[in-house]
C-alpha cells in the first residue's frame, strides 16, 4: 500500500511539474511582444520581413487577416487571408473582435485579436503588417506591441524603387507617393507613434537595425522553444 501511495505521489508530482512547465512556456510565449510594422510601399519592409523569417525560421509568424474580398487564384483560406462575408466581418467589428480594420477598394480588411493570440500560443513573434491607420487603431487597444516604421530615406528614392518594379502606372504611382507623403508627414507630427524608425538607405544596415530592435523578442521566442 505504501509503495502504491508513493507511486501515485510521484506520478502527481511529475504531472504538476509538467503542468508548471507548460504554464511557464505559455506565460513566456504571451510575454513576447507582437511587432506592428508599417511603412510606405517601396520602403523595404517586406524584404526585411522575408529575410528575418528566413534567418529565424522558427521565431516569426504573420497574423492572418480577415477580408471580404474574393480569393485570388492560388490563395488559401486561413493561409493568405480568412475570407469572410461582409455581414460576418461587420458583426466581428461591432463586437470588438478586431484590433484594426480598414476599407480598401470597397472591401474590408482587418486583424482579429484571435489571430494574434493564435500566433502567441505557438511561442512565436507575431508580425502585423499594417497601414498607418491600422497602427493608430491598434494603439487604442491593450496589445503590448512593439511599433516599427521602415521607410526609404526620401520620396525621391521611394519613387525610384517603385518605378524599378515596373508594376505601377503613372496614375497609381502618383497615388502611392501622395499617400506615402501624407503618412510620413503624420509620423513626423507624432514622434511617439513608433518605438523605432528605421531608414532603409542600405538594406544590410537596415536589416541589422531591425534585428537589434527586436532582440528581446528573439531571445524570448528562442527560450519558449526550450521549455
Automatic annotation (TrEMBL):
PROSITE patterns: GUANYLATE_KINASE_2 (PS50052)
Start and end residues of each Guanylate kinase-like domain: 32-215
Entry EC no(s): 2.7.4.8
Single annotated GO MF: ATP binding
Signal peptide range: none
SUPFAM superfamilies reported in the protein's UniProt record: P-loop containing nucleoside triphosphate hydrolases (SSF52540)
Keyword Coiled coil found: yes
Alphabetical keyword list: ATP-binding, Coiled coil, Kinase, Nucleotide-binding, Transferase
Record-level GO cellular component terms: cytosol
Xref: InterPro entries: GK/Ca_channel_bsu (IPR008145), Guanylate_kin-like_dom (IPR008144), Guanylate_kinase (IPR017665), P-loop_NTPase (IPR027417)
Coiled coil region boundaries: 163-190
NCBIfam families, alphabetized: guanyl_kin
Sequence similarity: Belongs to the guanylate kinase family.
Record protein name field: guanylate kinase
Source lineage: Eukaryota, Metazoa, Ecdysozoa, Nematoda, Chromadorea
Amino acid at each position: 500500500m505504501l509503495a502504491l501511495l508513493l507511486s501515485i505521489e510521484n506520478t502527481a508530482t511529475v504531472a504538476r511539474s509538467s503542468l508548471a512547465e507548460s504554464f511557464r512556456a505559455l506565460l513566456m510565449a504571451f510575454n513576447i511582444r507582437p511587432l506592428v510594422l508599417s511603412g510606405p510601399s517601396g520602403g523595404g519592409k517586406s524584404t526585411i520581413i522575408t529575410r528575418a523569417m528566413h534567418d529565424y525560421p522558427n521565431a516569426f509568424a504573420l497574423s492572418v487577416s480577415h477580408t471580404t474580398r474574393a480569393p485570388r487564384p492560388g490563395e488559401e483560406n486561413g493561409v493568405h487571408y480568412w475570407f469572410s462575408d461582409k455581414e460576418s466581418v461587420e458583426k466581428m467589428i461591432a463586437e470588438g473582435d478586431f484590433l484594426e480594420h480598414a476599407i480598401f477598394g470597397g472591401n474590408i480588411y482587418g486583424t482579429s485579436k484571435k489571430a494574434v493570440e493564435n500566433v502567441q500560443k505557438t511561442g512565436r513573434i507575431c508580425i502585423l503588417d499594417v497601414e498607418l491607420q491600422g497602427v493608430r487603431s491598434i494603439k487604442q487597444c491593450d496589445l503590448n506591441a512593439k511599433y516599427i516604421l521602415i521607410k526609404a530615406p526620401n520620396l525621391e528614392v521611394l519613387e525610384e524603387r517603385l518605378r524599378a518594379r515596373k508594376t505601377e502606372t503613372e496614375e497609381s504611382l502618383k497615388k502611392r507617393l501622395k499617400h506615402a507623403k501624407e503618412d510620413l508627414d503624420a509620423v513626423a507630427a507624432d514622434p511617439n507613434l513608433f518605438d523605432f524608425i528605421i531608414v532603409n538607405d542600405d538594406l544590410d544596415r537596415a536589416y541589422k537595425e531591425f534585428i537589434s530592435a527586436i532582440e528581446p523578442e528573439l531571445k524570448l521566442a528562442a527560450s519558449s522553444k526550450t521549455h
